[in-house]
Specification:
Two copies of one chain form a homodimer.
Chain A (H helix, E strand, L loop, with lengths): L9 H8 L3 H9 L6 E2 L6 E2 L2 H15 L4 H9 L10 H46 L1
Chain B binds a DNA duplex (30 and 30 nucleotides) through helix 2.
DNA sequence: AAAGGGCTTGACGCTAACGTAAACTGGTGT
DNA sequence: ACACCAGTTTACGTTAGCGTCAAGCCCTTT
């Protein structure tokens, strides 16, 4: 018994994620999404898998990754794409990415600390100004 | 008594940061850098301040910020640019940026956790394969 | 003086990530 | 039958962030 999938159209998906259909088609063109084509190429339909992928893509974008970087990262999730001895490569690549993520997080933390520092200086300065 | 400043040329600075002179000029064009012009517009010379700024710019880039976002952020450091009542605005803006940074860090951490999860699954799978 | 090295200012080229418009198709209500 | 709407492909336009010449200036070395 197959579970009933809530398949939605491209504009519905676009609306849901606050982007345009064009963007979604572009992601497909770049090989990031692979929607179901309803009976002999009529419409694209998107299910849970594509929604999950799109979510990852948009998060990647917010974090400043390029589409090709994101593509490589989400392909790590595709078990069927990484069969056999490809597994070792996937694992090794995953480790590299994880380390890069760690570095980025540290840089973010650093930047935040600096901004916070200046922020506090400013706040004090402001307090003195208003107190007089 | 003025401190002797170690002013360097554009290509020296470029070499130091592993970028090209063109990139540095572009940042100036965008209002991110303001080097000293040696005696009646002959050459650009870069001191400690520009080096610090460039460092921030490049870090911002690595973290996926646009040049205009970076510009706004480093302008928070410029005391002289934010005089008088502008201080309140600067402080408020700084708080917004700090919160955004916090969110980004959390997203990064989330992404890392997911990748790590899949990574461990893969590693186990790989172990079982090689053990047979 | 001539040649070279490093700097300068244009100006055009290029890629990524879409925006946007045109023209076509396919189902649906009236 | 006709209009309409939502989807499709194709293709050209646009912006950011530089790369890559071209042509000229200044200073030093030969």
């Amino acid at each position: 018994m197959v579970v009933e999938q809530p398949l939605v159209s491209i504009s519905n998906l676009a609306e849901e994620f606050l982007i345009t259909p064009r963007t979604i088609r572009y992601y497909e063109e770049m090989g990031l999404l692979t929607p179901v084509h309803h009976e002999k190429m009529s419409q694209r339909l998107y299910g849970a898998r594509e929604r999950a992928r799109l979510k990852l893509i948009l998060r990647g974008k917010r974090l400043g990754f390029s589409l090709s970087e994101i593509k490589e990262m989400i392909n790590l999730y595709d078990i069927d794409r990484t069969e056999g001895l490809q597994l070792e490569r996937a694992v090794a690549y995953g480790e590299k990415r994880l380390q890069e993520l760690e570095e980025k997080i540290q840089e973010f933390t650093l930047l935040k600390a600096e901004l916070l520092d200046y922020h506090q200086q400013f706040t004090e300065l402001l307090k003195k100004c208003t107190e007089e």
